[in-house]
Design brief:
The complex is a heterotrimer. By secondary structure, chain A is α/β, with parallel strands linked by helices. Chain A has five helices and six strands; from the N terminus they run E-H-H-E-H-E-E-E-H-E-H. In chain B, the strands form six sheets. In chain B, strands 1, 2, 3, 4, 5, 19, 20, 21 and 22 form a nine-stranded mixed sheet that branches. In chain B, strands 9-10-11-14-18 form a five-stranded parallel sheet, sandwiched between helices. In chain B, helix 11 packs across helix 14. Chain B is globular, with a radius of gyration of 22 Å. The chains are: A alpha/beta, B alpha/beta, C alpha/beta.
């Protein structure tokens, strides 16, 4: 299986906003934020279909999300996970003395993880805190 | 409420006409009363001390959006001066732009009990009121700004005084404001396009009106309503060499207009921080004092009052609704610049500034402010301010008293200027030997501003019936003293009473008082045109709805409403 | 019968729309319909009506389950936790009203807490930059009535501030802008072809993380000086063109967002953006404004500004206010194990902090005051549900341009629920009892 390296940024989407206000415990929130938006060119390199679960890994952590096609592209080489607990498993937490974690511009590796589930937000955070994540 | 009898102090009170004689002051139910009216008063021994009414500040920037910009964008203003809470005092911080809590306490320590916020952008009225609510002890009011307001520009273009007055009444109610403030009339609207109005005849872009029309029209509308205070003016061309002619031109617009107010004031224009408006020359190289010319006019026209805007030679934070001036200033000193233009209404800017005694211009400014006060024939019309924090922080008032009361103190400062000779050449101060006494100081800081504000029935004196705002200072005018004794004594009141509540006891803050917010409710005849214009402007040009504009009651937990009937 | 409440203020984002209409049942207990709001705002109002809403405080048990407790017990637990801690972190304060923020300040003073708001992960770096260089800005109505050059840098209002473009920036017809969007030139700088970029006249698809270079290049271009062929992925001809477009406007406005505040360079990016704005004022009129996220994060900075003198990251633990971003900011404190209790109100750090910080909260005594069930409530020891500010209780909020607007109550909160302010007041009372002051 292929692994690709991309530059990860996070941020708001309207679906993230709506589903967040509807309840972060709900599946819609996972559907909106437990994803990674990849450019078609990067999909080609990764060699998988749209809507495949992938493992995204950075120097700071690792998370399972669903790979979807970028809706606001093209942006080859750049990947987008909406702001939320999934993105925050892997972003660069260093503030470099500014107070601000480096939420945008984290180098990550994406690999296919078809059989692994995307966890809901509460479960993800709970398991992470208890050290129960793989 | 507790009764107090302040005994045997040297009393200075222009209202009672007492010039340092020993007298007793009695307090009952929040008011000053005859000494015979108290039965079992708590005795405050004031022998060997000075007793005055609580101070009244007619012009200071102490609450609201631009003050808070100053606080938030200047962490350095808090360096080494944050203090922990103790007793009933909360944490405090800040030098030139102190936290609201420090503002209240520091004024109280100087014996001040009433402070007017000098410029409230109407759209930000809630913010101003929230800050005043969190300023302990002081009675406060705020002046909404009108000089660049689109309604005013449109009405006054056709000299529609009645409509202007109806709009003023509506806005005072909506914002819970106290008086009509004018800042760089027309110039701040021009600044919305990066331009300015340099003199009273310089037309405002698009609106086709001159500052002169705005000034005269607002004076007339103010008198049409008969508001407690007169129109409160910051003229065009502030801070520029040669600007004294613009100032005189602005003064002259009040000629022939008589006050129409039941509140006892005699002026139709209060011009603020005149120091910044009294410059001769045509560049910073040859700038010179024109205080004589300015005071020549003021002394001979009794329908004007002014305040000083005294430079205190500190590092401070300038802030004004005069947006173009602040841009000009940041280009001069290259320090950080904040600007905040407000839709349909006004603008403002904030820039830190260092008034250094080593800079010739700063020293000249210092001289000019003092000259204004020392050349005043009637101290009831010339008031002490620093335009806090523009020319310096208000905590320097006792230092200004020292300079006004002591030629020796002035000479010491002049000798310390790096460019002493040039400064002396450009100013009149070195040749003035007048030394004000405490009675005149009480006129400039108590009775005078209270009268100008239309609040002589409440503040500024120690006559029975007035609010029991009384300060006792550790100062014996009959013993010999050095100039610094003045500053020390008046920086740190021994006792202070606000509306009959003891706020300071033996230099300790012992109560947060019952702070009130003053506003003016002016009733006018129904004016369908103005109400239609208001609806239209909110519908089309404002970004808040009309129903979300008016400041509701709970922003003023303890309001004091002054009713004005202009329906006749 | 139903009632329609007009002029309702939306408590979602810093756009703080105040023209919503909400239909409620005659008894004022049920919220039925929401008009004029964006999809997110409407959802916020409607979610308050959820049947499965948690309406009573609860405490995590040893076995991981929740146990319902009373508000008194919750206040007592919170007060003890804060009073016992040497240096508690009191974080959030952005999705609540200024009245509650003020009570929070008093608690913070009494217990010596570090007070931090969501600016710390949002526009905190902008606030630092403003302390470096100032900020020429204006109200949103100035943009609506005057602006003919609109630049969105690293922000995507189409998704994050959905009504911003129609109410204030691109489309509205104002006093001097009668032609609406046809009279405006819109420029978007973003590494993605965002939905905002799609409505722009010019999109500069910048190489991610190179904002500082491009901003500096604009300053060079204003002066007509030489540029390298390509800066931050943008050809120099394009940069000169955009510089000219900005200079030739009557009124230019720059809106900026997380693309610049969270990318490497942080506050220095904003320094450069503000310097661009200052420079533009040499040629025309220009202003710049941060696209503030939470509807009242701005208010939190204002309240702390007048009470302590600092807009975020206020450390009261030494008895007086200290401010040193990088040291007194939430994520730095958590990662360095410098706080020993965490109180959260009006924010969801569990979802929006990097996980390394979230895990530290889990390990500490913690209380979350929050109407929703969130990742934060999931990891805190006590969850105190409260009424929705702006829906079930009013109060003051500050828009992204610092304009204060009073939010409205449109429906009753479920029976027996407390508001933020009420709960904080009971905590303050308990803290004072415990501390004997």
């Amino acid at each position: 299986m292929a692994t690709i390296r991309v530059n990860l940024i996070t941020g708001r989407t309207i679906q993230q906003g709506v589903s967040m206000e509807a309840g972060k415990e709900k599946p819609a929130y996972t559907a909106a934020c437990g994803i990674i938006e990849l450019d078609p060119a990067d999909f080609k390199k990764l060699g998988v279909f749209r809507n495949t679960n992938v493992r995204v890994t950075s120097q700071y952590g690792s998370v399972i999300v669903k790979a979807v096609e970028a809706t606001q592209g093209p942006h080859p080489g750049v990947a987008y996970i909406p702001m939320g607990p999934w993105a925050n498993m892997i972003v660069n937490p260093n503030t470099y003395s500014t107070g601000m974690p480096t939420f945008k511009g984290t180098p990550v590796e994406v690999e296919v993880a078809k059989s692994e589930p995307v966890l809901g937000s509460l479960e993800l955070v709970r398991k992470g805190c208890r050290g129960e994540l793989a | 409420m507790a009764e107090f009898l302040i005994k045997n102090g040297f009393v200075f009170d222009p209202i009672l006409g007492i010039k340092g004689d020993v007298a007793d002051i009695a307090i009952k139910d929040g008011k000053i009363v005859e000494t015979s009216a108290v039965t079992k008063p708590k005795i405050i021994d004031a022998s060997g001390k000075t007793v005055m009414a609580g101070g009244v500040d007619i012009h200071a920037h102490v609450a609201g959006p631009k003050v808070n910009i100053g606080r938030n964008f200047r962490p350095e203003d808090k360096l080494f001066n944050c203090t922990p809470g103790h007793g009933i005092e909360r944490m405090q911080g800040g030098f030139s732009v102190p936290t609201t809590i420090r503002t209240g306490y520091n004024y109280a320590r100087m014996g001040y009990t009433t402070v007017m916020e000098a410029a409230m952008p109407p759209l930000y009225a809630r913010h101003t009121h929230e800050e005043m609510r969190d300023t302990p002890i002081l009675d406060q009011g705020a002046y909404p700004v009108f000089g660049n307001n689109w309604f005013v520009l449109e009405y006054l273009k056709n000299h529609e005084i009645e409509n202007t007055a109806a709009y003023i009444a509506w806005l005072l109610r909506a914002t819970k404001g106290y008086a009509v403030k004018v800042v760089n009339p027309g110039g701040t609207e021009a600044w919305a396009w990066g331009l300015n109005c340099d003199n009273v005849h310089d037309p405002v872009p698009y609106f086709d009106i001159t500052p002169a029309q705005i000034i005269k029209g607002l004076i007339e509308a103010n008198e049409y309503l008969g508001l407690p205070h007169s129109m409160h003016m910051h003229a065009n061309n502030l801070g520029n060499p040669g600007n004294y002619t613009t100032t005189l031109d602005s003064f002259k617009l009040s000629e022939g207009i008589k006050p129409n107010s039941k509140f006892g004031r005699d002026q139709v224009m209060h011009h603020t921080h005149v120091q910044f408006h009294s410059y001769g020359g045509d560049s910073w190289a040859n700038v010179e004092s024109k205080a004589k010319e300015i005071m020549g006019y003021v002394n001979s026209h009794d329908n004007i009052t002014i305040d000083m805007g005294q430079v205190t030679l500190d590092e401070t934070t300038t802030m004004t609704a005069d947006g173009p001036f602040e841009h000009h200033l940041t280009e001069l000193n290259h320090l950080k610049w904040a600007n905040a233009d407000v839709e349909l209404e006004t603008g403002s800017g904030v820039v830190p500034y260092v008034y250094s005694p080593n800079i010739k211009v700063c020293a000249i400014q210092w001289c000019i402010g003092l000259e204004l006060a020392l050349l005043a024939k009637d101290p009831m019309r010339v008031f002490m301010t620093t335009d806090h924090p523009n020319a310096g922080p208000f905590i320097r008032y006792p230092r200004i008293m020292k300079w006004l009361m002591s030629q020796e103190a002035r000479e010491q400062q002049i000798d310390a200027f790096k460019h002493k000779d040039k400064v002396v050449d450009a100013t009149n101060l070195a040749g003035i030997d007048r030394e004000l006494d405490l009675y005149e100081i009480a006129q400039m800081t108590r009775a005078g501003p209270a009268k100008s504000l239309g609040l002589a029935h409440m503040y500024g004196g120690l006559a029975p019936g007035l609010e029991a705002d009384v300060a006792v200072f550790d100062f014996n005018p009959n013993e010999s003293y050095v100039p610094d004794d003045i500053e020390n004594a008046f920086s740190n009141a021994r006792h202070l009473f606000k509306a009959g509540v003891q706020i300071i006891s033996d230099h300790e803050i012992v109560s947060n008082g019952n702070k009130r917010t003053l506003w003016v409710n002016a009733r006018v005849n129904e004016n369908p045109q103005v109400m239609r214009d208001v609806k239209e402007k909110f519908l089309r040009y404002y970004t808040v709805t009309l129903n979300n504009y008016e400041v509701s009651g709970h922003y003023l937990p303890n309001p004091y409403v002054i009713e004005v009937d202009a329906t006749q | 019968m139903t009632k329609t409440v007009t002029d309702v203020v939306c408590p979602f984002c810093g756009t703080l729309c105040d023209d919503l209409e909400v239909v409620v049942s005659d008894d004022g207990k049920k919220l039925l319909e929401v008009y004029n709001a964006c999809a997110i705002g409407a959802e916020k109002f409607l979610h308050s009506q959820a049947k499965d809403r948690i309406t009573r405080p609860r405490m995590r048990q040893e076995d991981g389950s929740w146990k319902e407790i009373s508000y008194d017990e919750a206040a007592d637990y919170t007060a003890r936790m804060l009073a016992d801690a040497k240096k508690p972190l009191m974080y959030g304060w952005s999705s609540t009203n200024c009245e509650a923020q003020s009570v929070g300040s008093e608690i913070g003073e009494a217990v010596g807490a570090v007070m931090d708001n969501t600016a710390t992960v949002c526009h905190g770096t902008s606030l630092i930059a403003v302390q470096d260089i100032g900020i020429p800005s204006c109200t949103l109505g100035e943009v609506k009535n005057r602006a003919d050059r609109i630049l969105f840098w690293g922000c995507n209002p189409a998704h994050a501030h959905p009504r911003h473009m129609s109410r204030y920036s691109i489309f509205p017809r104002g006093f001097f802008t009668g032609k609406g969007h046809t009279g405006r030139k819109v420029i978007v700088v973003d590494p993605r072809v965002t939905d905002t970029a799609r409505v722009a006249d010019v999109h500069l698809q910048i190489e991610q993380g190179h904002d500082y270079e491009l901003l500096d290049a604009l300053r060079v271009a204003f002066k007509g000086e030489q540029l390298p062929d390509v800066v931050a992925g943008i050809p120099k001809a394009k940069i000169y063109e955009v510089a000219e477009t900005l200079k030739s406007g009557r009124f230019a406005i720059i809106f900026f967002g997380m693309g610049v505040t969270q990318s490497i360079g942080k506050n220095h990016n904003i320094d450069a953006a503000i310097a661009v704005t200052r420079d533009l004022n040499e040629y025309t009129k220009a202003a710049i404004m941060p696209m503030r996220g939470h509807y009242n994060v701005t208010g939190s900075g204002q309240v702390w500004g007048w009470q302590f003198g600092f807009p975020f990251a206020v450390d009261l633990s030494r008895g007086f206010a200290r401010y040193n971003p990088g040291e007194t900011t939430s994520n730095d404190l958590l990662r360095r194990d410098e706080v020993d209790a965490v109180f959260v109100l009006g924010s969801d750090p569990g979802a929006h902090f990097p996980f390394s910080s979230v895990r530290k909260i889990y390990d500490l005594p913690s209380v979350a005051v929050e109407p929703h069930e969130t990742p934060t409530t999931e990891i805190c020891k006590v969850h105190v549900p409260v009424a929705f500010v702006g829906v079930e209780v009013g109060g003051c909020a500050y828009r992204m341009d610092n304009v204060p607007i009073e939010t409205r109550k449109v429906v009753d909160a479920p029976e027996g629920m407390m508001t933020d302010e009420e709960f904080l007041k009971s905590v303050l009372m308990r803290v004072r009892e415990i501390k004997g002051v």
